[in-house]
Design brief:
The complex is a heterodimer of chains A (718) and B (222). Chain A is an alpha+beta fold and 718 residues long. Helices cover 34% and strands 16% of the residues of chain A. Among the domains of chain A are: 168 residues; 167 residues, no CATH class; 43 residues, no CATH class. Chain A has a seven-stranded mixed β-sheet with strand order 16-17-8-18-19-20-21, with helices on both faces. Chain A has a five-stranded antiparallel β-sheet with strand order 2-1-7-6-5. In chain A, strands 11-12-15 form a three-stranded antiparallel β-sheet, with no helix packed on it. Chain B has one domain. Chain B is built from six helices and seven strands. The chains are: A alpha+beta (718), B alpha+beta (222). Chain A: InterPro entries: DENN_FNIP1/2, LST4_longin.
Chain lengths: 718, 222
């Protein structure tokens, strides 16, 4: 599919700003999906390991209908009653016959705040051509962002003064969770609106359809950026072993079970090693995004839990300074969220007689005697009877109560991926086989659904949102038993929140921990505080400031004189009155904008650097489209597309040659169960190999706290 | 990252003026921030940075707090000796060019030339002022836009507690004055008056300097 997408396009001309660099067709397709529901799949386990908190992260409610965009000119005619000319208002629809209608009933008029937005009419600011402003209009409960720019036309003597106003319906308290973390996106779109306006509408009137389209796309993107919980990296580096132990544990599990590596027996595949090498190579770009390259790591998977674990592993090496001095280590009990624990185990045992729910038990490091057999070719690996037959009894049957949309989409994703692989081989036979096998799988699924399997206990809402691992054909059952017997604890590969506090593994004994002891206060976009110390007197935030300031105002100030002979003046030297307390100063305002990394989402989110999402027929076209869009801001756009089912990692790269042209390249970094070492940074590859070796050794010893600390030190210097 | 905090005032006589500008400098370069002696003829009591009476005769122009841990010094002067033109322009923009609402709520503006500023403007009631109120603004400026935005809450709350204290204290004193029949009757006579006079705190600017220094220190540590 990618091949087709790129056919005859590698040197495709990027036309004007608005019809090539931003893909309008794709944008138009998204217009109707503004009010789609929550895209995020999360449970206690994913919250804990990805977001660092066991508490649900409540999304910020933004009323989409109250967004508003308008473009206005300040005519500079102070004596004229109507000094302002409105060019565009998103709340007004103009029909073909010229009549206008209001879309939403909004209880304010733009003219109410135009003077505030533009400033004093007499004392114009002539110093700058472009100014950005934020006004908070408390009475209307919204924030007004405006971009001001001057244009001088050839037939005009003076500059024309314009402004693009954007109303975001959030109060002053939400600015730091809604606007500031997404400032770059907001500014980017304001620039797009400005460019389109100047190019298409300044001299010629038309229907502003182009701006409307981009505006709706902007709202959709902003909404996703606001409501999608972002990963909290850096937890492996704090002096609390809980996350690091869990991380090592998951890596060890993946190496042994997924990659099929056995100490001294089987080397296994190098899939995780390859993937972590890639992450290690681009980790600073994923966190800071300061380079001229936009990088995306996209994991295509139908199984949210496997994808969540993989993202947890990837997240573990990302550098993110949480600036924590002291944290308690363990001995605290993990709070269980009983409302969600059952939803995290939607796996049937696969036997029709066993309808009872079995609480998941922790995975063992050696559930398989032999590593997972990695298929030689992607197409064969999926459907060859030799692989499927022994596992038939282990294939998890879909729950009959599950909404049909999920299995269908899985089937389709299976087809899509097969097509994708086939196209690269340019083999019609393989294509045909894959397609046929895809339909066979679809048929198998239908048959299994008709059998009425009701094997597991899932709350209806969450079963819909959380796809069962059993539904994913490609993800090998974690507890494969090569003796052919069915293990009742087949689902124990997934350490959920319910078993996190009882996790035992050969030599590692996980201490119980209350995550709340970390005192992580965060929103979907922002980390506000991470500290286990309660502030003095239990006062935090502005109240603490207020008390400190009152104390200061009621105190006497110490000062002494210092004479500056060169300037013949005296300096009053005033020492800090709190130098001894400075180190223990509470991080009440340890605000950190979290990087745009997220977990498993149902739909692809173009603005995030790391994410996992289910495969779909149009996923690759969406990715390519968003990569092209990134070229408006960056010189390069690179995507590492990871297919979990066929264990393939593709690197897609678009490079901007000039303003109108770009070149594309695709290369397979991991394919046919082998990494292509030519495309990997050898130093990083070796570093990750050493890391894996350290983790493997960790599980051979009894006391491991010291080893854990060594791994942390190694990670810090990675 | 170079934050400055300016207490600006719309003087009844002189228009937008900087009363006190607190800035960060490295210890090795802090002498550059020391303000030389300057003519105070164009200043009135309303817009002048006034030091405690005990410093009279010392020709003080600069308040300074050193922090060896961060290797920085925080310096407050009437105006910035280093960024005079830019900060003066921002003060004018805030108090004259923009349609400022004196509600203590933050407003943000900026461009590449003058950096990015978060301002919180407020009024203090005074019967002896024009319109019976004096208008001030705290302006936090930085050349990097994201630094201001990413510290939005820290700056906003840190400034807000100062404003709330100043308004509350001035109201208390104003209430006391309103009982004084003589002051009430001649309330419409306009006088220049410094904040230290309105709040009856000789060391007010020293305390504001220290608070600003703490905020700048926090911003450096982040």
């Amino acid at each position: 599919m990618l091949g087709r997408l790129f056919n005859n396009r590698s040197n495709e001309q990027l036309n004007s700003h608005q019809n090539s660099s931003i893909n309008i067709c794709h944008t138009m397709n998204n217009m109707n999906s503004l009010n789609t529901g929550n895209n995020i799949i999360e449970d206690l386990n994913s919250r804990t390991i990805l977001y660092g908190t066991s508490n649900p992260i409540l999304p910020i409610n933004i009323n989409l209908s109250k967004f508003r965009l308008f473009i206005i000119q300040d005519k500079g005619e102070l004596m004229v009653k109507n000094n302002f000319k409105i060019y565009y208002d998103s709340n007004i629809t103009t029909t073909n016959n010229g009549t206008t209608t209001n879309k939403n009933k909004i209880d304010y008029n733009i003219f109410q705040f135009l003077e505030i937005m533009f400033g004093n009419s007499i004392h114009h600011d002539f110093q700058s051509n472009e100014t950005i402003k934020i006004h908070n209009l408390e009475s209307l409960q919204f924030t007004l962002i405006s971009k001001h720019f001057n244009i001088k036309l050839s037939n005009q003597k003076k500059n024309l003064k314009f402004a693009i106003g954007l109303i975001i319906p959030c109060s002053i308290d939400l600015i730091s969770t809604t606007i500031t973390p997404n400032w770059q996106t907001i500014i980017h779109y304001l620039s797009i609106f400005q460019s389109i306006f100047i190019k298409n509408h300044l001299l010629n009137y038309n229907n502003y359809l182009d701006i409307s389209i981009f505006y709706k796309n902007f709202i959709k993107n902003l909404k996703n950026l606001i409501i999608t919980p972002r990963l909290l990296p850096g937890l492996n580096f704090i002096n609390n072993n809980f996350f690091l132990k869990k991380w090592c544990f998951e890596i060890n599990n993946w190496i042994e079970i997924k990659d099929g590596s056995k100490p001294c027996l089987v080397n296994g595949s190098k899939f995780l090693l390859t993937l972590l090498t890639i992450i290690q190579t681009v980790k600073y770009q994923l966190i800071n995004n300061n380079s001229d390259e936009f990088i995306r790591i996209i994991i295509m998977a139908s199984n949210s839990m496997v994808a969540t674990k993989l993202i947890f592993i990837l997240n573990g090496i990302l550098p993110f300074n949480l600036k924590i001095n002291q944290l308690n280590d363990g001995n605290i009990e993990l709070k269980r969220d009983t409302t969600t624990t059952t939803t995290t185990n939607p796996i049937s045992t696969g036997t029709h007689n066993d309808n009872q729910y079995h609480p998941p038990s922790p995975p063992t490091p050696h559930p398989m005697k032999k590593g997972w057999e990695i298929p030689k070719t992607p197409s064969k690996s999926i459907t060859t009877p030799s692989l499927m037959t022994p596992c038939k009894s282990l294939i998890i049957q879909p729950n009959s109560s599950t909404n049909s949309s999920i299995p269908t989409s899985n089937s389709m994703s299976y087809l899509s991926s097969s097509l994708s692989s086939s196209s690269t081989n340019s083999s019609s036979t393989i294509f045909s086989n894959s397609l046929t096998r895809g339909f066979q799988y679809l048929q198998n699924w239908k048959n299994s659904t008709n059998n009425g399997n009701t094997g597991d206990v899932i709350s209806s809402g969450s079963s819909f949102k959380t796809p069962s691992p059993g539904l994913e054909y490609d993800d090998y059952p974690w507890n494969s038993n090569h003796n052919g017997s069915i293990n009742n604890n087949i689902s124990n590969g997934y350490s959920t929140g319910s078993n996190m506090n009882t996790m035992n593994n050969n030599s590692i004994k996980f201490k119980k921990i209350e995550l709340n002891s970390l005192n992580i206060k965060r929103s979907t976009t922002t980390l506000f505080k991470i500290n286990n110390n309660i502030s003095k007197n239990g006062i935090e935030g502005k109240d603490k400031f207020s008390q400190e300031f009152n104390d200061l105002m009621n105190s006497d100030i110490d000062y002494n004189y210092n004479y500056d002979s060169s300037k013949s003046v005296s300096i009053l030297e005033i020492p800090f009155d709190d130098e001894d307390q400075e180190d223990s100063e509470d991080k009440d305002y340890d605000y950190k904008k979290l990087p745009k990394l997220c977990g498993y989402v149902q739909d692809y989110l173009p603005d995030f650097h790391i994410q996992a999402c289910p495969n779909s027929q149009d996923l690759e076209s969406k990715i390519i489209s968003s990569m092209k869009n990134s070229l408006t801001q960056f010189n390069k756009s690179k995507t590492f597309l990871i297919s979990l089912r066929i264990r393939e990692i593709k690197e897609i790269q678009l490079t901007k040659n000039d303003e109108k042209r770009y070149t594309s390249s695709i290369r397979k970094i991991y394919y046919n169960s082998k990494p292509n070492l030519n495309y990997l940074n050898q130093d990083n590859y070796t570093k990750i190999e050493i890391l894996f070796e350290k983790i493997r050794n960790l599980f051979k010893q009894d006391e491991n706290d010291e080893e854990i600390n060594k791994i942390r030190d190694y990670l810090k210097n990675l | 990252m170079a934050f400055t905090i300016t207490l600006a005032h719309f003087c009844d006589k002189h228009g937008p003026r900087s009363i006190m500008c607190t800035q960060t400098t490295e210890l090795s370069q802090m002498d550059q921030s020391t303000l030389p002696d300057f003519s105070k003829e164009s200043y009135c009591k309303s817009c002048l940075l006034i030091y405690p009476k005990s410093t009279k005769g010392e020709n003080v122009t600069t308040l300074r707090t050193e922090d060896t841990k961060t290797n920085h010094a925080f310096v407050s002067t009437q105006y910035s000796a280093i960024k005079f033109r830019v900060l003066n322009s921002i003060v004018r923009k805030c108090l004259s060019e923009e349609a400022t609402i004196y509600d203590s709520k933050p407003m943000f503006f900026g461009d590449e030339n003058r950096g990015y500023s978060m301002t919180q403007s407020f009024k203090i009631k005074d019967l002896e002022a024009r319109g019976s109120e004096r208008r001030y603004s705290f302006i936090v400026n930085c050349d990097q836009e994201h630094q201001v935005l990413e510290n939005w809450d820290l700056i906003k709350d840190s400034i807000l507690v100062m404003i709330e204290y100043l308004q509350k204290s001035s109201l208390k004193i104003e209430l006391e004055n309103s009982k004084n029949h003589e002051i009430y009757l001649r309330g419409k006579v306009q006088h220049s008056k410094s904040l230290i006079e309105m709040l009856k705190d000789d060391e007010l600017f020293l305390k504001l300097h220290l608070w600003n220094s703490k905020l700048l220190r926090k911003l450096i540590n982040k």
